[in-house]
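Figure S4 source data
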Amino acid sequence: MAARPEITGRAISDVVWLPSGNIEPLAVTFKAAASITGLGQTTLWKYGKEKRIRLIRLASTRRTLIDYPSLKTLFLPEQTKAPERRRRGRPPKASANEERR
């Protein structure tokens, strides 16, 4: 029996975008997020538990969605400076002046 999306409310394809290109969805399913980002669903769940992306749990259903703006910020480059490179060798001993403080 063929799926009828007009009755079930489910889309035929994995990702359904609105016809207008400038409107972003509020939330996406894990399957859609996996196809958009190229990450696996397990990795997306891990990022949700680590609070790197925001998960939205609908009240009356068992469905969990991913907040689309938080998914976009996951792929933005970080604005922090690069960590300082670790120097080779043993760290220098503290001088006598620093020990007295």
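Figure S5 source data
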Amino acid sequence: MKKNSAFLMMVILLFSCSNKLEIDGLWVVENVKVSDRNMTPNGRWMRFNSDSTQQSGNGWHQHSVGTWRFPPKTKELEVINTNGYEDTYEPFIVSFSNDTMIWKRTEDSHEVTVILSKTNEMPQTYADQLLGLWDLEKAMENGNDITTKYDSDQKRYLFFRWDKRFVIRHTPDGTVTGVYNVNGHQPEMTWIFDDRNKERLSWKFDVSDEKLSIVSITPDGHQ
């Protein structure tokens, strides 16, 4: 009888460790669905540590820390952030499929499903993709190439800093500076100039193959 009890205890312990190991690591949020709406955040990630601590953020920016609990019998995941609002909803019911983790629960009568994938690299947000120094190659206006007019000395460049400030050098007005805000759900940004006489500008942008393309849009989203 003692041997059977010891064996049962060992099986329970191994089962518990197995579930804990499944959830340990860095996860990227691939999809968030609230009822029939897609609410997937840009570059959202979570890291679950073996000591039951956790961190989360978007892209290269960590903004939440705390702890986590995952009792193996219930399969219910509880994430506690010590520097944010208390989560008043029921824990997520968790299931696994290869390197994919699926969370489900109900929030205010809405079914919420979160799909995460395991990774070894931090995801990038749209704002992260902008960071750095960009040399002007071409400028177009109404289908016409105005690069020579816009950058006659071929020295004009745009620098996006980590502190959400931008610098444009070698413009007709000299050095232009300001703050840039990036939309959290789509590749759009707004420039707010330090010179209060300049109106805000909004842009759609795309980053691929180390090239940045930006297209001016009006505040209502039209080109």
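The mean pLDDT is 87. The CA atoms of residues 28 and 45 lie 4 Å apart.
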